Description:
This protein is α+β, with helices and mostly antiparallel strands and about 290 residues long. Helices cover about 25% and strands about 30% of the residues.
Amino acid sequence: VPVSQRQPLVWFDGKFITGDAPEAPLTTHAMHYGTAVFEGIRSYATADGGAAVFRLPEHLERMRKGADMFGIEFDIERAGRAVLDTLRANGHRDAYIRPLTWMGTGTIGLDVDPLTQHLMVATLAKVVHLGGARTRLTVSPWKRNPATSLPPLKLSGAYVNSILAKREAKQRGFDEALFTDDKGYVVECTGANVFMVKNGEVTSVEHRDALPGITRDTMIALSGAQSREVTLHELLDADEVFVCGTAAEACAISVLDRREFGDNPVTRELAALYAQVVRGQDSRYAHWLTAV
Length: 292
Ligand code: PMP
């Protein structure tokens, strides 16, 4: 069977299984309470015929921080090997990589100490994109989980907040929701961080409730953007707005509620540079790539 038609293999606790294998019992704690931590990572095909994972250590370090919150033991080296082994086993080059570590069985109570702990890595040949080249954004009536209630890490249960906002935005005909706080400051989107361009100057939205995005960090390095708190009013007044994330890459915003944005030359240029960097076409940033 050709690689492209085979059921992709999933790395599960040290062995390969197919994705539909029943490895998670129905009493799995994570399914009841969201006690899991995930990452979204990407690999890209490189010119030498191989592939490379973009900023793998940074993604796994963020995952370790999340795992720490639940007392899940997380070995970065082992997870890194699992990511590379899964890509190789599936013959994936351009892929979305989804590691998940979760609390299994042992109790249905809220004390997680007795629970089993698990790790899986799936690789997907298709990446779920945002709204495409012209993303329509709307301010969400939902507020972001405040960092004082849930740390801005990739804790699975916390993503119910993003899902409610995304669903509400789509019901009103938009592609994506923008979270703002009670004081009128921009936080982030449901799965991406926010940037604006005004008079050629790039600014990265900073907010304590927002996930510290790795793409955000990359875009700041590539553009020399300043990072600071930004009000919704300022965002509406910008020349260009774009959002960024591992899946979204750099995605230009065409509409923010009643505000329409025109041409986006700075976003386009940055997106093109990012596309080169992740594919290893810019030697200045080779240190961000892990060869598969
Ligand atoms: N914010 C949220 C809520 C996210 O889920 C993501 C995607 N991980 C991002 C921002 C962007 O983060 P990154 O660039 O590290 O993918």
